Automatic annotation (TrEMBL):
Keyword Iron (UniProt): no
Domain Carrier positions: 213-288
Chain positions covered by the region annotation Disordered: 169-198
Protein name (Swiss-Prot/TrEMBL): Acyl transferase domain-containing protein
Any Gene Ontology biological process: fatty acid biosynthetic process
InterPro entries: ACP-like_sf, PKS_NRPS_Biosynth_Enz, PKS_PP-bd, PP-bd_ACP
Biased composition, class Pro residues, residue ranges: 174-192
Entry-linked SUPFAM superfamilies: ACP-like
Source organism superkingdom: Bacteria
PROSITE patterns named in the record: CARRIER (PS50075)
Amino acid sequence: MTADTRQFVVAVSGRDDDSLTTQARDLARYLGDARREPARVAFSHAVTLPAVVKTLLCLRETHPHRLACTAGSVEEAADRLRTYVSLAGDPRALAQHGIYRTTVDRSVFDEPDDAGDRAYAARLAAEGRHRQLARLWAVGYPVDWARIYPDLAGERPVYLPPTRLSRRRFWPDPATPPAGEPAPPAVEPAPPAATGSDLLGDLGDLPDVLRRQRLGDYLQRQIGLVLGYPDGELPRTDQGFFDLGMTSIHLETVRSAIVRDLAVDPEPSAAFDHPTITEFVRYLADRIEPATTGDPTGSVLAGLDEHEIDSLSATDLERLLGEVV
């Protein structure tokens, strides 16, 4: 079989200089391991240059701090990223290696791109001038990557190390009451959530809307646990697993918990096919059979739509749930 020798632009961005350098270092290490030690990288066979490029160019948000280069293989992409890390802070030296690093706070190209812009970028790609495309993107030129590389439409995205996000907490410290005034009463901790067979039994008795809410709470707790979230904080339900910072090891840990607690064995590709908590909850809910007990309370809850359930007070919702389970 003929080797794929196509050249592509490899583009990475970050919210600040440190996150960009960290992302380049993590990505270089990951791509290098995928080739040198494939056993250490989940789905290493899927880490091809077109899949990597599609994930970076078409499926990630663009931030102000940018670096771009070109590569014709995964190995070359990893080598270019390592070069960036070693020369970060020296744009002239980077440019000599075909690596372009700029910060685009506000691009002169911020206005909507027109047909001329798109045609020019497409012509550069057709002529094989990928370095010029990398240079233009780095300074803020609007590039429609789906049009530049139409062959990527058939490529499946691949897991890559996520952009590092700041998870510093910005909650104010608790107010200290004036001298002589009693401290406010402590809030009693919430009762522990059901796990294992108890959770599975609860889910089977719930109507679909409540089942999904309970599954969402469960997944948030499991993911927050493996990612080390502080008490009282939970991961967002609309953010991709990999953007939350999950690795293949984290995914396997959560998958094992799902098998144990829900008696559901997700397919190996389930996290890719349903890449957020919201989407994965739908997937799990469809695989958990509802109980058919004919319980009248369950029928009452089943007759409520999602808006009506959301409008219930915490007391009413707890009472109804208690009657069901």
